[in-house]
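Kindly inspect this chain:
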Amino acid sequence: MNPTNQLGDTDSTAALHAVPAASESVPVILLTGFLGSGKTTVVNAILNTAHGLKLAVLVNEFGALGVDGQLIVGAAVPVIELPNGCICCATGNDLLKGLDAILANHADLDGVLIETSGLANPAPVVNALEHGKFSRPVRISGVVTVVDALNFDDNLERAEAAFQQLISADLLLINKCDLVDADTPAAIATGVAKLNPDAPVLTCTKGQVPVKLIFDVARVTPLPQSDCAGQHNAEFQSLAVWTPKALDITKFNAWLDDLPGDIYRGKGLLRFSGHTGMHVFHLVGARRTIEPAAGIDRAFCSLILIGKGISSLNLQSSFSQCAAEQPREFK
C-alpha cells in the first residue's frame, strides 16, 4: 500500500449517489479524531463543496457548551448536538434517538455525518449503530479518523482514545500538513500504516478532502474488542467559562499564558473590545488561533477547556477579569 496520497483541489460537482428510496439504506460516516485534529473543519469542507448531496450532521461535544455545532454551516437539515458527554457512553441513547429522528423526518437524505468527541472510542459507537433500531435502514459506511500532523506524537502519549481512533479507522486523514515540515506527513503516514495496515492513509490541509473519497469509504478494518466504560471521563475533564462582556485582547492573551499545561484543548465564541462581530477561538496544544465567526452573533463570550485535572480549577473568576474596562454595546 502506498502510505500517502496528497489530496489536491478536487471539483466534485455531480451528485455521487442517487437519492435513496425509503426502503434503501442510508450511508452513515463516523468521523473521529483526537482533540483539535480538525474534525469540524473536515465537516465544513464537505458541506461547502458543490457535490449535490443532501447531508445531515450529528455532533457530540465533550463539555456543556455546544460550540462545534454552531460552527458547522451548510448542512441540509439542522445540526443535532449531543453535548456534555461521550458519544459512546453517556449520550449513546441520545445518538440513536437523534439519528432516528433525522431519518424519520428527512426521507431524501443522501447520507449522515456523525462527528464524535475528540475522546470517543469509535468501536462501541459503531457497535451501537449497527445494533440500533431505526425507522429506516442504515449502513455504517466506515470510520474516518482525522489525525493532527502537528501534535501526532503528543496525542498518542496523552490518551488511549487517540490510539483507538487510529486502529479503528477505515480511512485515515492526516490533517494540518501545512503546519509541519515537508517530511513529517510521510513519516506519520508510515507510522499509522504500521498500526492500521488495512486503512488507506491520505494527507490534507484545512480538512479539504474530495467528498467522493469520504462516501466511498469501505469497512476494511476489524474493530477492536473494547468498550468505553467512561474511562476517559475520569482522565479528562471539561471546564466552561463565560462572560456577558467583550474581552480585552491583551488581558485574554495574558490569561491564556497562565493556564496550566495540562489543558490540551480550548474552543470558544468570543467578542473583543474594538473589534466587530464574534470570533472563533481555538487552542490545540501550544497553538492558538482567533478568526472571525461568520454568520454567528450573540451577546456573550463562552469558552470550553479540556484537559487533565482541571475540574477543581476556578478559572471563571479570572476569565471574567479579562473583560474590557468599557465594553461596547452588543448589537
